[in-house]
Amino acid sequence: MNDTNVSNTVLDRLTDEWDALTPEAQKAARYVLENPADVGVSTVREIALAARVKPNTFVRMARQVGFEGYDDFREPFRAAIRKGTISFPDRARWLQDIRKSDDLGGLYADMIGATIRNIEETFAAISAEDLKAAAEAIWASRSVYTLGVGVNNANARNFTYLASTGMTQFHAIPRPGSVATDDLAWADGRDVLIAMTCRPYRAEVIEAVRIAREQGMTVVGISDSPASPIILSAHHRFVVAADTPQFFPSSVSTIALLETLLSFVIAVSSEEIVERVEKFHQRRHQLGIYQDDPE
After folding, report:
1. CB neighbourhood size of 89 (10 A)
2. pTM of the model
């Protein structure tokens, strides 16, 4: 929910008063912060059931942050629904208001505007069929090598980390102390290379794609131009918008694309992947890696 009044009068109050809330009230507040769209359409009993607390907990929480009761607390959310303001606000007016806010308002508005445009332009040019075809190639492969250097090294490693929660054949390259072409030395037609680079294009990524093609690998290319060397050489081609007011190209669209691609891989995979991911996270809870929510 993006309505400014709701955010200022309710959601911000919850975060400001968080430490003063009881543990049970924090559970209720957490549910509201994470699911604000549910508040305006749910009864106190319904939302309490979803949050796994008693209805009176929501009443007490509302009073603790300055409202007379739950109905008073819920009213701004219901008003937002009536006014139709729970969707994304009018972009032009929103950005103009930010621009006028202070000396850095212009930069802030430019960054937000570029981020939104990059996401829209990227996905407007990509079809679900394109993503499905790449996902099926990835799932059917023996090994998947994800290559990124510079800023894209972090993107490649994040993708590989997420994939490794349910699959074991993913490798981020270059490995520490190695070079990408060496990491691909024993790869062949059973393997996939996901390569990414934006202008100025990195020579080692271009060379790795060339080697991968020579060795019969399937190449998924992610870059910022249809004329990019790695796009021209790829079997599955994804062009991302990376414009930004700052010096470095934006990674927002690349990250969004990788997350979407991974979701497609899981969608075309066998049911065991879901079980593996659940088991992975259960193990982390058992090892105390995650902090569980208070009972």
Report:
1. 14
2. 0.68
